[in-house]
Design a protein that fits this description.
mainly alpha; about 0% strand
Amino acid sequence: MPRSSAAAAEMHEHAVAGEPMAPPAGLSAEEARDWAVLADAGRLGCDQAPLLTQLVRAMARSRRIAVELAALGERSLAGSTKAGREARAAYLQLAAASREEAKLVAVLCVKMRLAKQTKTRLITAEREHERTPTGPRPWDATERSN
């Protein structure tokens, strides 16, 4: 019997849809809805449950932070009073937290192979890199020919 290729081995894992995992008991209703959407495809294994749990929690935190940012964004942040400085500081703190949550969601999506960029196999990316021309770009030229 011939050996199956690496691409066939990758497809075999996703060819048979299993039953979606049930959400853990500690999730909120919003997190459980996200879990159901992500686990509905049936291609996530039980070994990915901890990562999926952290992903849905980070998504929910990110949404809550976005709501708070929107509420603070409606107020004036340009005041020089104590209240204006406090509102601006709170806004900047929430903006930083929002960036961190977005990074966490992106990293977890990549680790779980949910992001589009991770669907490109490494060998394909290497071949694409080899095909791109190297050397100086026309707009990087320092001399003018006029």
